[in-house]
Design brief:
Blueprint lengths: L6 E5 L6 H12 L2 E4 H9 L3 H7 L2 H14 L7 E4 L8 H9 L1 E6 L3 H7 L16 H15 L2 E3 L6 H13 L2
Parallel strand pairs: 1-3, 1-4, 2-3, 4-5
Helix pairs in contact: 1-8, 2-4, 4-5
Bound molecules: adenosine-5'-diphosphate, shikimate-3-phosphate and magnesium ion (MG).
């Protein structure tokens, strides 16, 4: 199977660019684009922040797992932007990985902080007392566990990241 016969799944921290780069990559490659955060919102009839305001963060992770397992991985192939917490679902990630190339958008903590100034209100599914540093450390290991490719390119413009991603995918 060549890469373009697989889906492309983007994982990484909130603010790493999964949604921004995902849609650009899909356009460039002529693929469909799916953002699992939007699927969660439509399924629950609430925004992610409303879901987190009214429920434990583990509820959001459970809904996310159901959504990941329901993504249609058959034709047409897609670029799939996941939420930052998707990697807590081992079954969801193993399902996506069977049909996809998984790319970790690895952005360092300083750049993430520049991109996310509303850590407490951004709707991050984390333990209430968990710091950003601790969350990044915990998740970095999970992103690496599931990724086939890692892109560390925080100094590039989005269009340059897309070019780089296309190069990396074509080498898989
Ligand atoms: N090189 C880059 N790649 C991706 N996003 C970038 C880049 N530089 C700045 N940004 C900004 O960072 C933010 C990324 O947010 P988003 O795409 O929602 O990330 P995620 O879906 O991973 O949470 C956007 O505001 C985007 O404009
Ligand atoms: O990291 C997280 O815990 C989350 C990230 C969000 O997606 P993005 O990573 O696209 O911001 C979204 O899935 C939800 O609000 C939880
Ligand atoms: Mg997103």
């Amino acid at each position: 199977m060549t890469t373009y016969q697989k889906n492309i799944v983007l994982v990484g921290m909130p603010g790493s660019g999964k949604s921004t780069l995902g849609v650009l990559l899909a356009k460039e490659l002529g693929l469909e684009f799916v953002d699992t955060d939007l699927l969660i919102q439509v399924r629950e009839g609430q925004t992610l922040q409303e879901i987190l305001d009214q429920n434990d963060y583990l509820f959001l992770r459970a809904v996310e797992e159901s959504v990941l397992l329901e993504v249609d991985c058959a034709e047409p192939k897609k670029v799939i932007a996941t939420g930052g917490s998707a990697v807590y679902s081992d079954s969801g990630m193993r399902y996506l990985k069977q049909h996809s190339v998984v790319i970790y958008l690895n952005v360092g903590i300083e750049e993430l902080r520049r991109r996310i100034h509303n850590y407490d209100a951004r709707g991050i599914a984390r333990r209430p007392d968990q710091s950003f540093e601790s969350l990044l450390e915990e998740r970095d290991a999970l992103y690496k566990k599931y990724a086939d490719i890692t892109l560390t390119a925080e100094t590039l413009m989005p269009s340059e990241c897309v070019d780089r991603l296309i190069q990396l995918i074509s080498n898989v």
